[in-house]
Amino acid sequence: MTDVAIQIDTLSKTYKGGKRALDGVTFDVPRGQIFGLLGPNGAGKSTLINILAGLVNRTGGSARIWGFDIGQDARNAKASIGIVPQEILFDPFFTPRESLEIQAALYGVPRDKRRTDELLAAVHLSDKADAYARTLSGGMKRRLLVAKAMVHSPPVLVLDEPTAGVDIELRQQLWAYVRELNAAGVTVVLTTHYLEEAEELCDRIAIINHGRLIANEPTRALVGMAQEKIVEVTVDRDIAAAPANACFDKVLLKGSRVLEISYRKDRVNAGEVLAALQGAGLGIVDVSTKEADLEDVFLNLTRAAA
C-alpha cells in the first residue's frame, strides 16, 4: 500500500452530445489529509466525485481508492469510500436508526459490528433516532447523510458541498466532527463554495476549471501565490485627490485622509509604498494591511484559465 488515499490518472469524461466534463485530470489525495477540491459551478467536481462513487462511467483514464482500481476492483473501491452527496436524499418513511441499519446491511456490515448509536450521537441525532426522517430539519437531514456515509467505516470520506444552505452553528458542528474523523485517520475530500472554510480546514487544495486541473498545492503555498497586497494608510492632512506613483497598482481615496493602495508584492514592498507617500509630502499617521487569501488566488487562477 502507498501513502495515497485516492489516485486519479488522466481521468476524462465526455457526455453524450460532446460536453467534456473532465479533460485528463491527474492528481493524488494523500492519506490522512483534509483535501479540498474547488472550482466554479460546472467545473467538473461533481462528475469526478460521481465517477469515484461508481455512479458515472469514465470515458478515459483511471482512478484508485485506497489502492483499489474503480474498474477492476469496484467492490473493494466502493467499500473504501463514503460519499455525502450535495443533494439531500433520504426515505421519508424510515427513521434515522432504520436508515443507518439498512445502509449498514447494504454494505454487508454484521449486526454486531454496526455503529448505529455511535454515529447518531456523533452527528447529534440521538434524540431523533426513532423519528420519521420526514420530520427532520434540513440540517438534521444533512447530518444523517454524513452518518450514512460512515456506516461501513470507510477510510476515505467525500463531502460534496456539505454545508450549503446550513446555519453557522450546524456548520461548526459538522466541521468539528470532520476534524474528529480526520484525527482518527479518515482521509477527507471536501468540495465547498465557502473558500474561507477550505482555507481553514484543508491541508492541500486542488482547483478544477472547465474540466482541467489548474492548481494542486498545499493550502499555505496556494495562498502565497497571491501577489496583490493592499495597505490602508491614514495621512496627517486632508487631501482632495489620491496621489499617483509607479509602484501603486491602484489607489482609492476612502476618506479625506484615508488611502487604500494596492500593489504587487513581487515588484515592490510596503516600505517602498510608504516612502512614495512620504515623498509626496504626506505624513503617515496609521497603517493597516490586508493579507491575500484563498479567494484572491481562486479568482485569479480561474480567470486566467477561462
UniProtKB/TrEMBL annotation:
Gene3D superfamilies: P-loop containing nucleotide triphosphate hydrolases. GO terms for molecular function: ATP binding. Keywords: ATP-binding, Nodulation, Nucleotide-binding, Transport. PROSITE patterns: ABC_TRANSPORTER_1 (PS00211), ABC_TRANSPORTER_2 (PS50893). Residues 6-235 form the ABC transporter domain. Belongs to the ABC transporter superfamily. This is ABC-2 type transport system ATP-binding protein. It comes from Sphingomonas jejuensis.
